[in-house]
Automatic annotation (TrEMBL):
Pathway where it operates: Metabolic intermediate biosynthesis; acetyl-CoA biosynthesis; acetyl-CoA from acetate: step 1/2
Native source organism of the sequence: Chengkuizengella axinellae
UniProt-recorded name of the protein: Acetate kinase
Organism placement in taxonomy: Bacteria, Bacillati, Bacillota, Bacilli, Bacillales
One Gene Ontology MF term: acetate kinase activity
Catalytic activity: acetate + ATP = acetyl phosphate + ADP
Location in the cell: Cytoplasm
Gene name as annotated: ackA
Length: 399
């Protein structure tokens, strides 16, 4: 069975085509600048040359049509016909309180996702456009949706409620939802399998450190608390997002510099984090290069980023009254041995001891980077959100 996984953004669309017989990726790619005259389709078919095509792609339906054309292209394609695609799985950022599992797309499901536009104005409308684009291009193909928030629906009220008037929760559903759930779910599960233990027997802190950054306390296989909140802005310092700050800062800034709500949102989401403190980059590789070259702003950005991560890890160990496993994942977590070392070398209170040599070794595999004396197992587990979406879609379609 071949399943197409789609992650539709407002002006971009990423895709991966899976052969579920062996869970291999047959092709992947992305469409960028949807809605502009010179949109770009970059296509990577397995075992063939990567191709890039520039054309006018004004909407998501055209984007999906272009992707399908590429998948069945004589030279660059890997399918003989569109009929080979038996199902499509979509990533959906916000499932609110309505979805604690992946589901097959129906009219009701679409209506629920639309009701959540308010909570995820940048993401959910784009996901609906992606779903509708598939409907019009492949009307008979079943679709499933996999939510970033679903894994965190197990959090107790003491984790998900904010200490503000309860009416705001009752009326507007203002609460912590958490994100990157597909990733936290996958890596915590893989961590247990790697250690040959059951998830129910473990207290795991998972750190997803990419452009977006979040930590989750995974207690006995379920999300118990997580750092992102009602939106993916709360919690840790990120590439361009501020993470936690005193909420009083927002009205104060708006009064001082006469900013509109959209401008404050943009400042906190797009012009803060590593970018704001280093003054020049949101990319951890460049921050580390700057730090090595003696750039004091890059060093401060790194120090703040690392310190906040370490505080969250400590607080989640306290929240679960223990930590058996610490997992690093995503672009920075999987690749930055410097960040992992700085964090672990200052968590000795928990009995963490890193094996420096293994930590430094570059690998794409799941691995243990703690020493045999360490009281906490420290693992690097590469995340694979697309595979989870493909698997969930496969399961739903076959039931
Ligand atoms: P996204 O959240 O967009 O999915 P990724 O998980 O791909 O992001 O992570 C992207 C980030 O990973 C980049 O911003 C970059 O800073 C970081 N990264 C990638 N490779 C390395 C590396 N070798 N060392 C440090 N950071 C890296």
């Amino acid at each position: 069975m071949k399943i197409l996984v789609i992650n539709a953004g407002s002006s971009s669309l990423k895709y991966q085509l899976y052969n579920m017989e062996n869970e291999s990726v047959l092709a992947k790619g992305r469409v960028e600048r949807i809605g502009f005259e010179s949109s770009i389709l970059a296509h990577e078919p397995e075992g063939k040359e990567e191709v890039t095509e520039v054309s006018e792609i004004l909407d998501h339906t055209t984007a999906i049509k272009k992707v399908v054309q590429m998948l069945i292209h004589k030279e660059h394609g890997i399918l003989s016909s569109i009929d080979e695609i038996e199902a499509v799985g979509h990533r959906v950022v916000h499932g609110g309180e309505s979805f604690s599992n992946s589901v097959i797309v129906t009219e009701e499901v679409k209506q629920e996702i639309k009701k959540l536009f308010d909570l995820a104005p940048l993401h959910n409308p784009a996901h609906i456009m992606g779903i509708q684009a598939v409907e019009s291009t492949m009307p008979d193909v079943p679709q499933a949706v996999v939510f970033d928030t679903a894994f965190h629906q197990t959090m107790p009220a003491s984790s998900y409620l904010y200490a503000i008037p309860k009416a705001l929760y009752n009326k507007y559903k203002i609460r912590r939802y958490g994100f990157h759930g597909t990733s936290h779910d996958y890596v915590s599960d893989r961590a247990a399998a790697f250690l040959d233990k059951k998830p129910e027997d473990l207290k795991i802190v998972t750190c997803h450190i990419g452009n977006g950054v979040s930590c989750t306390a995974v207690k006995h296989g379920e999300s118990f608390d997580t750092s992102m909140g009602m939106t993916p802005l709360e919690g840790l310092m990120m590439g361009t997002r501020s993470g936690d700050l005193d909420p009083a800062v927002v009205p104060y800034i708006m009064g001082k510099v006469d900013l509109r709500i959209s401008e404050v949102n943009s400042m906190l989401n797009k012009h803060s984090g590593l970018m704001a403190i280093s003054g020049d980059s949101s990319d951890m590789r460049e921050i580390e290069e700057g730090m090595d070259a003696g750039d004091t702003n890059a060093k401060l950005a790194f120090d703040m980023y690392e310190y906040r991560l370490r505080k969250y890890i400590g607080s989640y160990a306290a929240a679960m009254d223990g930590m058996d496993v610490l997992v690093f994942t995503a672009g920075v977590g999987e690749n930055s041995s410097t960040l992992r070392k700085r964090i672990c070398d200052q968590l000795t209170f928990f009995g963490i001891e890193l094996d420096d040599k293994i930590n430094e070794t570059r690998s794409k595999n799941e691995r243990r980077i703690s020493s045999s004396n360490s009281k906490v197992e420290v693992l690097v587990i590469p995340t694979n959100e697309e595979l989870v979406i493909a698997r969930d879609t496969y399961k739903l379609i076959n039931n």
